[in-house]
Amino acid sequence: MSHAMTLPPQQALIGGQWVNTAATMQVEAPATGEPLARIARCQAEEVDAAVQAARQAFAGQLGEWASWSARQRSEWLLRFADVIEAHQEQLAQLECADTGKPMTQAKGDISACARYFRFYGGAADKLHGETIPFENDFAVMTLREPYGVCAQIIPWNYPAQIFGRCVAAALAAGNTIVLKPAEDACLSVLCLAELAVNHSLPAGALNVVPGFGYEAGASLAAHPQIDHLSFTGSPETGTQVAQAAAQHHVPVTLELGGKSPQLVFADADLDAALPAVVRGIIQNAGQTCSAGSRLLVQRDIAESVVAHLCERFAALRCDAGEADASCGPLINARQKAKLEARLAAAEADGICVAARGQLASSAPVGGHFVLPQLLTDIPDGHEVLKEELFGPVLVVQVFEDEAEALALANATDFGLCAGIWTRDGGRQLRLAKGIRSGQVFINNYGAAGGVELPFGGVGRSGHGREKGFEGLRSYTRIKTIAIKH
Length: 485
Ligand code: NAI
Ligand code: MG
Description:
The chain is α/β, with parallel strands linked by helices. It has helices at 44-59, 70-86, 88-99, 103-123, 159-172, 187-198, 213-221, 235-246, 270-282, 299-314, 333-348, 383-386, 402-409, 425-434, 468-473, and strands at residues 12-14, 17-19, 23-28, 35-41, 131-132, 138-146, 149-153, 176-180, 206-208, 228-232, 252-255, 260-264, 292-298, 317-318, 352-356, 358-359, 373-376, 393-399, 417-421, 439-442, 462-463, 476-484. It has a seven-stranded mixed β-sheet with strand order 15-17-18-13-12-19-20, sandwiched between helices. It has a six-stranded mixed β-sheet with strand order 9-8-7-10-11-21, sandwiched between helices. Strands 5-6-22 form a three-stranded antiparallel β-sheet, with no helix packed on it. Helix 9 crosses helix 10. It is globular. Bound molecules: 1,4-dihydronicotinamide adenine dinucleotide and magnesium ion (MG). Residues 153-155, 157, 180, 182-183, 212-214, 217-218, 221, 232-234, 237, 240-241, 255-257, 289, 335, 388, 390 line the site of 1,4-dihydronicotinamide adenine dinucleotide.
């Protein structure tokens, strides 16, 4: 795989220049455990230089970013969407090798990244303030202003997609950015940054500081000169970055994952529901914040649904991303060990592994593979029903009626997504209103990625909204101007 792959710059991007860092770190291919590249490992000093560059670019002291009109930003973002699409093959190869995800999913992720730039490019010059009727001798208006320097700390599961989601929205609104990609997968991000520089994004508008969470990430979150922080990752790290940002009263958007239920009623179209239930947990080997990781199924159909899902799970194959099987490896040895320990504990507690997928005979040794599996007969309140497992593991619970389905759906601290499968229109709306989560899908799951649709959590899934127009607004703040005449 690596011989055909063009590696991106392996440095940090600061003020429009690729700079060498004092320290470096190795990144590996999850499918083999072998090294892919050695890249920049930014520490406090480099993060500070990146924040200064972003500050200067925002203030008009570096490059021409601050002088660009909304229309110029719009035009650049729209052109950049085309650039991403023209480099889809190269970007998808990097994403596939670096995250281990199947090639078809990697290509889909690059398309989604381009769609973010197109959506926010189209929106950049349509972001209006308001005029407010007040006393007769006043004219009052609001301006939607960019925050300034946006710190963005992103995870390894969807680097290119989340780059699109954060970077396109923040730039559209006129901010500058310091982005810290995850130590486990950042090659597509470096490639996207290189493309942006080569296609005349003004210096300092986007700065990229690869590195470890506890070094570059912690320095960035605690930096006194950032104006906004968006973070996607675990609830625990989310708490730490929010605490750091609170020292300087920096607003934060937190996207922290979930334990999202799929509710399947006896009247559902099972031909549509069951493939979507499997896809919802298998996509990206279950390492998806919005994974449909709990199946709640009505008693009357539970036995036949589980039997059918067992067939589907047994047919799943794990292999390297380039083989484009149903499931790739997990991201690293630590994630694999954590999941395997939880699965061993579940089996010891008498939980049934009703079906397992298989490792393809072509799968490389040394890859961090965990077989997809379906767990049933789970005691109420068990850890596997509550914790985000972040792997290809679906847990099944049975309910009698709508009231019990709602109670089980809400029996979680998380609240990111929910899927409801039923033909009953009244029930669709009652449940959609009753479920505590940021997104509800009825007779579908995930709305094909939903670049245009606001996305975010409640409770332990975080707060703030990204994607769609709401995501763009969240990168602005309102200034009120009252004129007496
Ligand atoms: P993490 O939350 O530690 O990492 C996410 C990002 O935060 C990475 O860029 C990392 O470098 C950075 N980071 C880590 N510690 C930091 C700190 N002290 N200050 C600032 N930034 C820091 O997640 P990790 O360890 O990779 O995965 C653990 C679990 O987190 C997973 O099992 C999964 O449950 C959850 N997770 C959820 C994601 C989502 O999409 N919501 C994405 C990745 C992980
Ligand atoms: Mg990697």
